[in-house]
Amino acid sequence: MKFSPLILSALILGSAVAAPALALDFKSVGAAPAVLYDAPSEKGRRVFVAPRGMPVEVVLTYGEWSKVRDAAGTLSWVMSKSLTAKRNVVVNVANARIHAAADDNSPTVFSADKNVLLELTDATPVSGGWVKVKHRDGQSGFVKTSEVWGD
């Protein structure tokens, strides 16, 4: 079966448009710390012990294992059962200001230093690049997505 160049172009373009978009899949380390490995096996080299709540981006799932990227960009493997769908973010700037509303002019509720863990209470970004977060002490507010990693 032969297709004219015009039909072939339409088929190629149509399949490109219909291709699914790849969404980032963020999860967090569960209730217990998780061992990260250099390969999808407990026989692999242990490279890091991830603390409870640490956010990771799931890049690939292979059987019972997930290949994950951490905030530093390092790739490693973790048993998938060690991860939870509960979302956390980590502050990636020297001092993030958490506001009462998704607006720079709103009052600052609290500030969080670099590497502080915050719970993502609403994974849907607010217009203008803000997400709603909660500190473990109970304070909550909005932080710019550019000031955290894991959203």
TrEMBL record:
It comes from the Bacteria. This is SH3-like domain-containing protein. Pfam families: SH3_4. It comes from Herbaspirillum hiltneri N3. Keywords: Signal. Residues 1-23 form the signal peptide. InterPro entries: DUF1058.
